[in-house]
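Lecture 7, part 2: worked example. A protein chain together with pyridoxal-5'-phosphate.
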Amino acid sequence: MNPVYLDNNATTMVAPEVVEAMLPYLGQLYGNPSSMHSFGGQVGTALKKARADVAEALGARPEEVIFTSCGSESDNTAILSALAVHPDKRHLVTTRVEHPAVLSLAKHLEEKGYEVTYLGVDEKGRLDLEELGRSIRKDTAVVSVMYANNETGTIFPIPEIAALCKARGVLFHTDAVQAVGKVDIDLAKLPVDMLALSGHKLHAPKGVGVLYVRTGTPYRPFLIGGHQERGRRAGTENTAGIIALATAMKLARDNINAENTRVRALRDRLEAGILAKVPDCIVNGDPEHRLPNTSSIAFKYVEGEAILLMLDQFGICASSGSACTSGSLEPSHVLRAMGVPFTYAHGSIRFSLSRYTTEAEVDLVLDSLPGVIETLRRMSPFREDAPAKPACTC
Ligand code: PLP
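Predicted complex, written out as structure tokens:
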């Protein structure tokens, strides 16, 4: 049975058109694009075309596109590059709600002696731009703020942040891994210096990403070796993945408005249905500035993991807003930063839709979920009328 796949912020199905485009490069077209012979050269030509297509989809120039292996590599490269080009600048600014691709790197850099300012968010997950402005110092090497949050879908005002950083003369990087393909991004008009994206979030396969670096931005490579990517990222190119990414980005760009309208309507139907059928639940995030495919819903008095396991029995795939650390379930850093109350944060579920989501799938969730929550609430130790818990002996 096909799953009801509502976990598209984790990863997406590779589009059939994308599989078709990449298959020859996994088969007969296996030459190395850097080879001098024409067998490799034809792959080099395809790579050049893919770079131009990716650039066009972003409003960028081909030479501003560096192919990488994933979003995490792009994020790491951008931040480490900014620090390497300004060795005298030992401060960076980011937010409390970034993906670990940025947040764990920032913590690692703190251990190495860098100073990091972590900007907080309000209860809807919104940043305070005045606070951001105040956090920029003379020794700030880079500001890194995500475009859209992977858990709540909240979209940050990246055009304003980019303009602010430009005015203050500080490099600006945005982790746009969740935004590209869902938000219309035109880098010809958006003054970001660096931007990260990842193929597997937009119906291309895993193992391919992009770091966009605006012309004139000082840059130091992270992977050192061969001369691929004009010496900015060593390693023989993942040609099949790159062709796939270019195809996926073109598909997303050509259909973005129609797809967003359809997906948003389905997401809103799901959300409205849940709020109507299930008491004591709230939507996490900023309802006005949100990815059209994402809905994070907090169910009071229940554990997200328990909800996921029961939904799994109905073939429904979603994701929870908690992480199991050292044996205890901690609400996610994003929900904690937003101050979502404990009794809600523990029961947060992220539903993330895609162009392949159908109305029938949404209705199946609406049929199954109320019963799941009711069953779990009957057993919940968090209920206000629950019997006192015995003391922990571990
Ligand atoms: N940034 C964000 C916002 C993400 O959601 C993810 C993946 O979930 C990443 C970065 C990392 O991307 P990748 O899995 O391609 O390394």
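The first strand starts at residue 4 and ends at 5. Confidence is low (pLDDT under 50) at residues 389-394. Keep this in mind for problem set question 3.
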